[in-house]
Design brief:
Layout lengths: L1 E5 L6 E3 L2 E2 L18 E6 L1 H7 L10 E5 L9 E5 L8 H7 L13 E3 L19 E5 L15 E2 L5 E2 L3 H12 L6
Helix pairs in contact: 1-3
């Protein structure tokens, strides 16, 4: 069984140049050693090289995984982090400097133990022991971008909209699929 969710809030316009939907990303805090809720991060460096599966700033996409146990060992909950869309080049440029547009500061592990990620059967009776996969959101377009070219911005930098390729790269790596 596979459950896939994506939480993208409807954005409220702050100005014609930017969108701020109020989403506050889960802090990337390294999990403590031995934490049963620890998820390990996997950078999509190969997919970044072969398919340009990159964040707004060009850093590789990333997902976190915690293996399932018992009856949940072959079941997967895949969560796509939300974060709204950036609506202009300047908004995307600003976002590329933070966790919603760059994987540069993502930690090697995170601890996820609430809500859908809870390992407590009283809190999460359906999926408490499933494989948990958490795709970090860093593309500015709700995992839907597939632009073949980047957009040049100030300072000789570029913006990339390749969210679809981040998801495809993660699926190829995680589920050992043959992907073009």
């Amino acid at each position: 069984m596979l459950v896939l969710t994506s939480f993208v809030a409807v954005a409220a316009a702050r100005s014609s140049e930017d969108i701020d939907d109020g989403y506050v990303p889960i802090p990337n805090v390294e999990a403590s050693a031995g934490d049963p809720a620890m998820m390990t991060g996997y950078s999509l460096t190969a997919a970044a090289s072969s398919d340009n599966a990159v964040c707004l700033d060009g850093s590789p996409g990333l997902y976190y995984h915690r293996p399932g146990t018992g009856s949940g060992a072959n079941k997967y909950y895949i969560h796509q982090e939300g974060g709204g869309w950036c609506s202009s080049v300047s908004a995307c440029q600003g976002r590329s400097l933070m966790s919603l547009g760059s994987s540069v500061n993502y930690t090697a592990t995170v601890s996820m133990s609430s809500s859908y990620f809870s390992m407590d059967p009283a809190v999460n009776p359906l999926m408490y022991n499933w494989n948990m996969v958490y795709f970090k959101y860093c593309d500015g377009g709700s995992f839907s971008g597939s632009n073949a070219t980047a957009t040049a911005i100030a300072g000789g930098k570029q913006l990339h909209w390749r969210g679809k390729h981040i998801l495809n790269g993660g699926e190829c790596v995680f589920f050992v699929l043959v992907c073009d």
